[in-house]
Amino acid sequence: MSDIVEKTLTALPGLFLQNQPGGGPAAAKASFSSRLGSLVRGITALTSKHEEEKLIQQELSSLKATVSAPTTTLKMMKECMVRLIYCEMLGYDASFGYIHAIKLAQQGNLLEKRVGYLAVSLFLHESHELLLLLVNTVVKDLQSTNLVEVCMALTVVSQIFPREMIPAVLPLIEDKLQHSKEIIRRKAVLALYKFHLIAPNQVQHIHIKFRKALCDRDVGVMAASLHIYLRMIKENSSGYKDLTGSFVTILKQVVGGKLPVDFNYHSVPAPWLQIQLLRILGLLGKDDQRTSELMYDVLDESLRRAELNHNVTYAILFECVHTVYSIYPKSELLEKAAKCIGKFVLSPKINLKYLGLKALTYVIQQDPTLALQHQMTIIECLDHPDPIIKRETLELLYRITNAQNVTVIVQKMLEYLHQSKEEYVIVNLVGKIAELAEKYAPDNAWFIQTMNAVFSVGGDVMHPDIPNNFLRLLAEGFDDETEDQQLRLYAVQSYLTLLDMENVFYPQRFLQVMSWVLGEYSYLLDKETPAEVIAKLYKLLMNDSVSSETKTWLIAAVTKLTPQAHSSDTVERLIHEFTISLDTCMRQHAFELKHLHENVELMTSLLPVDRSCEDLAVDASLSFLDGFVAEGLSQGAAPYKPHHQRQEEKLSQEKVLNFEPYGLSFSSSGFTGRQSPAGISLGSDISGNSAETGLKETNSLKLEGIKKLWGKEGYLPKKESKTGDESGALPIPQESIMENVDQTITKKDQSQVLTQSKEEKEKQLLASSLFVGLGSESTVNLLGKADTVSHKFRRKSKIKEAKSGEASSTHNMTCSSFSSLSNVAYEDDYYLNTLHDRGDKELKTFSLNSELLDSESLTELPLVEKFSNCSLSTPSLFADNSMEIFHPPQSIAASVAKESSLASSFLEETTEYIHSNAMEVCNNETISVSSYKIWKDDCLLMVWSVTNKSGLELKSANLEIFPAENFKVTEQPGCCLPIMEAESTKSFQYSVQIEKPFTEGILSGFIRPLKISSEDFGKLWLSFANDVKQNVKMSESQAALPSALKTLQQKLRLHIIEIIGNEGLLACQLLPSIPCLLHCRVYADVLALWFRSSCSTLPDYLLYQCQKVIEGS
Amino acid sequence: MIKYFLIVNKQGQTRLSKYYEHVDINKHTLLETEVVKRCLSRSNEQCSFIEYKDFKLIHRQYAALFIVVGVDDTETEMAIYEFIHNSVEVLDEYFSRVSELDKMFNLDKVHIILDEMVCRIVETNRERILAPLLILYVRNQAW
């Protein structure tokens, strides 16, 4: 290939003399811009980085002179911009030209303007300060009568626009939605899409116009609107179910070739549009049978039509398969989709193979049979020369791991890890191995060895949760105490062996893990004495390759072991060595050790054996120092100011540009010269008079300069200041696949193995070890003991957390206004609505396998009813289904019994938490199901009460709850009740948790009050960079601040920290632990809300909710 | 989401780069060198999709030029792969058989064309992509 380049290079001079190659409509133009020409020529001729630097620096200095010279014409400026773009593209800073790019966009004629806009979009980023200067130009161009100018302005808006200036252009852009030209309408939609991305709450009111765009007569406009819909549906699919029909119709038309021919790509009609629509349908049909039914036909047609042998049809097919497996299943379609996957996987084309593996990975959880069908291909891919294919295969295997094949799969993963050098891959895989090991470890030895491999390979790049979790697992243990001890002992032994090896270097994290374990659990050893362990640790301490952080771990371990070792020379040597260390931290530890060593009694009481899990009471306010502080103050010492206060003072003295647009948001008018929320917060300090003095000072200081402080985010280092010992950050174990395994699998016929070559046999062997547990036989055995096997290392629930939970929930309960089920159901209650939302999101399948045992007419009558998608608004769903088979004798007394028992269970469970009223989900003459929600401190607890109204015993009642994406549902213990006695009520509790932090969709169930002091509020406030402000008009009924805040507290579960005059501080957190702070200020009937959070989207969400609550009430 | 669109040659020199999410300019060169290194190390028998950090890189080679698109995991690789080809076809149509030098001398035009096509995949219809650019230049010549 390089000879082509050479040819090009040799041909260059000639080319420049004549004309440009190609010579399209504009190519001829290039030669006249000679400077650009020479730059390009220079760049092409470059041979080294050094030359490039010289050339570009020269170019930049000449450009610098040209752009600022007053004689430079706009035409020349345009050429300069292109040259600047070149320089930036090669990585050289050309920031001096940014302002000229903006000027060019403002002043130039059409072409120059376009290049100016182009340069701006390439040079600047969303939050660049110069971007504000562009707003005026954009506004002017949007109003221009020249369509080309409008087009350009819209293009640049859809690429880059400052969030806070959206209100300035929004009405103009909305107008453009009605423009007669398709291109303008299309670009307007894209601009709104951009706004929706960066500030969704600002475009909330134009949703109706989006619908118009969707129905636009022009394909381009409609296609553009799909981007917005895809996003909105991703956030909240239930709100757009009514559009399913439209999307299906559009897809039908596209697939049927009804679009203009110029949308075809290689005679496939608008492939990317099809893909987009398929994605939307997949989201809409997810867990929703009725919606899914609407799309079966068109999906079938798409699968059928996309048979052309072209890459782009494969892309469509892939998307189609994805959709078919996302929506409510239909066996016919699944079959076709599976066939498609087969075609992909078996294809000799490597790209298709990759797609096939990816599709398999996606569908494997629903349909493990496919893995069995393709097991040989998967095995081949595992040894594929292309590492990407290998990697994808491992991903696939990860999904089908169970207790039986875990050793083989983890081994394969480790093999891959040893070859890979890429950090991202290592971090990712190491996390997966650790997760699998924890979940499915067959025995202690394997577990410890695997974790050793994880620590040595993952080293210092892996996620810090992995060693933390591992140590926690060791420390907290699981249910069996002897088993725990064995695991610990094994760990200690294996680490000692590892440390004995010479010339091996372990990552620091691994050494830290080792030192902790050795420090805690060496007492379990019977052969080695603590002194010997100390000697080994000492050897490590003297090693230069060990970091000082690890050394502190090591010395802590030594400290723990010292009381057990009685007298040890090594300890004394160590003390001697480190009390003169240059590292202050080490010296501190050494001195501590020294003093403890002198007082053995204190030492043993301070460092008891195996007590790492017990709680310590800590006086966080350091109140025992109050006397000392008072004495210091009386002697004239300066009062202590917390860090953030000092920083504030320092900042208030600096001059900072004001970036807030005047008159647009309340901040400029409302907050000018006012105190910051942080300033207020200092009023309520916990200890000492020092802070009180500090308060007065800051207040007087702040009155001058405070506005600057609130000017712009980002000048403070953004800290993740989430406290706590990351109790919520554990990787969440995935549900074992076996639980979903379909029982209709026929296991691979073993007889055909006989006549195969040795290599084949090996592969078969590997296959059988990999795919074990996916077949039907093993599933049956496993289902019984799945729980004990698959969760070998399931953690004990932490008592500590529970305690703190109780302590903090001091809500006043207005418990149980529980008159009868029927009239509580649909009151206009916000909570109920949110419950309703959640209910919609989660597909609830009540499959009741009821066997009527004592029914005299029938011997055994197994009935399976499936009530899928029990929408709460249709409690009569039972009637839709095949209920006529099921006629048990009706008992009237049952309902009374049910009510009372339900109410009582309600009470005992939930007195300490806020909960919603119960409402009936569905009901018939035999069974009624109702549910209510409890907002627990760490999760949302859904309680489903199933009442057997009939006089007969129900067997194998089975309540299945499937979580929506991003949520995790765990069944509370003691919920499995195979038999339901007659006329009784059983409650099933499921706790719903957010699986990974996200802030789209329905979160209201996961907002919890965040109880912090005003001072902490101040600190947090400063550390958060994402803020959102808005004024909300209050209704008359709650014009006073306290009542408004009370509404927020009740409806959104925000915590009111303090109300000072007409300002209020509130805080909440999104489970597991994303805090959000709210500062409110009232003037006249307007409530100014100001949110800050560490998460960028949470404020937007909360603002929207608050707005709804305040304006709605 | 498309994160960036790069055109680089076999020597690893960037011929066009467009970032759809802000990346600090100092990191551009590093990222581009890394990306090119990865693409060059792939043979034709290996697949055109590469994992790089938390991105997927989709690359396609045209003579001495590589076009590389970085996407996150919400995109289908094959769709992007064909989208690359679509963009090349559009450039071909405009420049009538596009070459590396065309792109270099007309960097601004290539960018304008791309602006019409990407910010997600927003337009794939050739005539519509080229219309604004043609108008600009026709008008400009009449000036």
UniProtKB/TrEMBL annotation, chain B:
Protein name: AP complex subunit sigma
InterPro entries for this protein: AP_complex_ssu (IPR016635), AP_mu_sigma_su (IPR022775), Longin-like_dom_sf (IPR011012)
Membrane topology: Peripheral membrane protein
Keywords: Membrane, Protein transport, Transport
Function: Component of the adaptor protein complex 4 (AP-4). Adaptor protein complexes are vesicle coat components involved both in vesicle formation and cargo selection. They control the vesicular transport of proteins in different trafficking pathways. AP-4 forms a non clathrin-associated coat on vesicles departing the trans-Golgi network (TGN) and may be involved in the targeting of proteins from the trans-Golgi network (TGN) to the endosomal-lysosomal system.
Organism: Rhinopithecus roxellana (Golden snub-nosed monkey)
Subunit composition and interactions: Adaptor protein complex 4 (AP-4) is a heterotetramer composed of two large adaptins (epsilon-type subunit AP4E1 and beta-type subunit AP4B1), a medium adaptin (mu-type subunit AP4M1) and a small adaptin (sigma-type AP4S1).
An annotated GO cellular component: endomembrane system
Family per similarity comment: Belongs to the adaptor complexes small subunit family.
One of the protein's GO biological processes: intracellular protein transport
Main location class: membrane
Every AP complex mu/sigma subunit domain range: 1-134
Localisation per UniProt entry: Endomembrane system
Pfam family, one: Clat_adaptor_s
